Structure formats: structure tokens, C-alpha cells
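To: structure subgroup
Subject: Chain for Friday's discussion

All,

I'm putting the inputs and outputs inline so they're searchable in the archive.
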Amino acid sequence: MEDQDTLIDTHAHLASSRFETEREDVVRRAKENGVTKLISIACDIEDAETNLRLAAEYPEVAATAGIHPLYVHERDDDSWMVRLTEMARSEPIAAIGEIGLDYFHPPQDGSTEAEWRSLQRDIFEHQLQLASDLDLPEVIHQRESAADVTEVLRGFPEVSAVLHCFSGTLEEAMTALEMGHLLSFTGSLTFPSAKELREVAPEVPLDRVMLETDSPFLAPVPFRGKRCEPFMVRHTATALAALHGRSDREIAKITTQNAHRFFRNLSQNASS
């Protein structure tokens, strides 16, 4: 397959237990479908360590390290930040992530809503500072928290971010773009119910877009109800191509170039 027709899945949770016994097959299926690089996203320190092992084993995999907002309560002390910092400084990670704020789910530690949001924000800001210190990009999770995520990001204007699994309004999209960030679309773009998202997507300049699966979640049409895998990102690419009136090959080329510009430590020879 020609290089310009290859794709990058910029957000897959390969450390998930749902892939534990068949990661080799998942990577193989992706490669067979022209998805030649997978960014394996961390939700906690254990995920990050698994991601680094996978990246060492498979040239198609790149690793991130970070603490997801729904896991911020699981640390016992500040050793998690020490370990995260060590990883970010010494390992070839592609980004800090996924990090951010999640106001959709209730507190995971029995705290009040205000306490829970304060804890999330504190750890979000710590990780943004780490990204700033090490000149690393960050992968942002925001769910029912767009205003606060924007407020926090404005405090770190030097850091480059991607709003992963973007499903917000046109106003939220334009705000992120004005701040210099990127948006990433998942298989949600193919859902019949995602009318507003399909109205937003063509308004986003293609040089500010990346593609992802968020696997094992959000399988695109025609795989709804099944476990999502990185090879399925091609269906999201087709949906985005149709919305922009471009060919699948053009979308593959542009989004792959965007991913190489955004992430660190992505080998340009991943498809060889």
C-alpha cells in the first residue's frame, strides 16, 4: 500500500484488558488494513508501563503516559507523579495523556462533586506543567467540562493539545482551534444520531484534524455493538472524506501528516 494511503490511529487503548490475549492480532489486523501506526493511550501508570512494553515489542505502536481524570483518586501518594515524570523524561513517549476533566461521571472516591472536580483539576494542571516542562504535546479528555478545560488550557498557552473524541459544538471547536489546538474524530462521526457532529466536522480545517478509534470503545458503523479495533479507523476516515468532499486517500495523507507533526517519537518508517 502506498504511503499516502496509510492511516494512523491516534488514540487506542491497547493496554485495556479487552485486548490482553490478542494484542499481536490487533496490531496485525491494523497493519493489514493500512493502519501503520497506533498511539496507545494511558489512563494510569500501569497503562503507561504496558504501553511502553508494547512500543518496544511492536514498531507500529507508540506510547503515551498520563492519568485520566476518572483515575486520579487511585494514587496513594505523590509517587505517581514521580514515576510519570521519570517516564516522560527517559522514555520515548509520544505525548502526555489522556488527561483532562470529566464531569459526566460521578465522583469515584465518595467525595463531594466540588472536591472531585478540584482533585481532577489539580492533577490536570500538574500534568500540563509536566508537558510544558518537557515540550510534549498532550491528549485531552473533556466530558461535560469544555468551559473548565478551556480555562485551564489558557493557563498553558505554550502547550499543544488535541481534544480527543471531539463531540462538542461548533463554538467549542472554534475556541479550541483559535487556541492553536487540534481536534480528533472517532467512529462517532458515523453514528446516525451524530447529526450535530457531522455539521461541525466539515467546518474544521483539515490541517487541524486527526483520526482515532478510542478502541475498544465507539466502534463505527458497520461494527456497532462490537469491540472497536484500530483497523476500523478507516471507516471514520471515509466519513470525514465524504463530509469534506475529498477522497479517502487525501484524508489519509493529511491526517497522517498531522499526526506526525503533533506527536513525538513517531518513526517515519513505521510502515516499512
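Points worth raising on Friday:
The chain has one domain: 3-262.
The domain at 3-262 is CATH 3.20.20.140 (TIM Barrel).

D.
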